[in-house]
Amino acid sequence: MAEKKTVTVRQTGSPIRRNAIQRATLAGLKLNKLGRVATLEDTPAVRGMIAKVHHMVEVVE
């Protein structure tokens, strides 16, 4: 069985003073506090969400 690819992201920026769409995107990535880390399935949708809030998250290798 093929193993699903994952991507790990860490929140580095605060959602304070950001618009509601960016806050909702962070919540969709299971991030809502500084330093929180989430491991998600590597899909085009997740990559798009990361790109939308790229200034507040970093991809952990």
Strand content: 15-25%
CATH architectural label = 2-Layer Sandwich
Count of DSSP strands: 3
Low-confidence stretches: none
Question: What structural class is derived from the secondary structure elements?
Answer: alpha+beta
In this structure, how is the largest beta sheet organized? 3 strands, antiparallel
The average pLDDT value, as a whole number, equals 95
What general form does the structure show?
Answer: elongated
CA radius of gyration is 12 Å
Distance N terminus to C terminus?
23 Å
State the CATH topology. Ribosomal Protein L30, Chain: A
Give the full name of the CATH homologous superfamily: Ribosomal protein L30/L7
Strand order of the largest sheet: 2-1-3
Helix content: 25-40%
Oligomer state equals: single chain
> What's the helix count?
2
Order of helical and strand elements? EHEHE
Q: So what's the CATH class?
A: Alpha Beta
How many distinct domains?
1
